[in-house]
Amino acid sequence: MTVQTHFHASTTATINAKDENSERAMAIASYLEFTTTLLPTMAKTANKLNTWPIHNDHCFQRVVLDTICQAPWYDVIPSPAYKNLSLEQARAAKALCEKIANNQVCLTTLNNKSKAWRNKQAKFDF
What is the pLDDT along the chain (126 residues), one digit of tens a residue? Predict the structure, then answer.
């Protein structure tokens, strides 16, 4: 006996929306865990050869969000940003946090770009 199931487009869209909302929520939770806990802890325990230019949670959030927006995040995402990230932005934020944690990107460069987008002076160490 063969059973055929017919899904209407609206049913499929509802299922996809739930999956996307779930993925979005998980990506945002991961981004928040990285920026509020993991990255600040890593920055504070960095050795002298691997000092990070930022150490506070709000600084990590600024750098990550500015980088994914390629501008000051508040020009692109309504505040509070973590509640208003799209699925793609949440995915990008999570991926960037992972790259920062694994030293796959230069945090000093990202921080300096963030400051430049905000017309802030980059810190020079001589």
Answer: 444 445 455 545 565 777 889 999 999 999 999 999 999 999 988 665 568 999 999 999 999 999 999 999 999 999 999 999 999 999 999 999 999 999 999 999 999 999 999 998 655 554
Give residue limits of the domains in the chain.
9-117
Q: How far apart are CA 36 and CA 47, in angstroms?
A: 20
As a whole number of angstroms, the distance between CA 78 and CA 111 comes to 21
Give the number of other Cβ atoms within 10 Å of residue 76's Cβ.
15
Distances (CA, A) of 8 to 4, 12, 15, 20, 99: 13, 7, 11, 18, 40
Query: CB neighbours (10 Å) of residue 123?
Result: 10
Using CB atoms within 10 A of its CB, is residue 31 exposed (0-12), middle (13-18) or buried (19+)? buried
Q: How many CA atoms lie within 13 A of 54 on its CB side?
A: 24
Residue that the structure tokens 């992972």 belong to: 98
